[in-house]
Write a structure and sequence with these properties.
Elements: E1 4-8, H1 14-29, E2 32-39, H2 42-45, H3 56-73, E3 79-85, H4 88-98, E4 103-108, H5 114-129, E5 134-138
Parallel strand pairs: 1-2, 1-4, 2-3, 4-5
Length: 140
Amino acid sequence: MYKHILVAVENSEADKTILAHVSELARMTGADLLLVHVADGWAARNFDQLQLRESEEMKEDRAYLEKLRAELSATGLKVTTELAMGDPATELIRVAGDQSVDLIAMSTHGHRFVKDVLLGATVDKVRHLVKIPVLLLRAH
């Protein structure tokens, strides 16, 4: 079934829902996990183009990814991480292709009205533009 699962993490409480579910799925299938956080602030979106140094937020994001990797690895899972930079949907799609994952797992928030348009855009773009399954779980 699944051998390499990309898990989009946000550095928020929503991550608990998706990580708990996907950890069990990985155990059942023997899949490796790739945790991806997309830094999307000004510095991240212009990082390569302007040859910028990592912002404090980006350093915190790397530390967060490492913390998650260590926690999940301690339970016996094989976990790698990637901090991508730019538009979240575009970067998740790029990493999924580059890393040949066979499932993308993301949490949704159940926002209403304006927030749906802004925050739901990443999920909608990813699920419409990839050719692999996308697992969506509503965050608690």
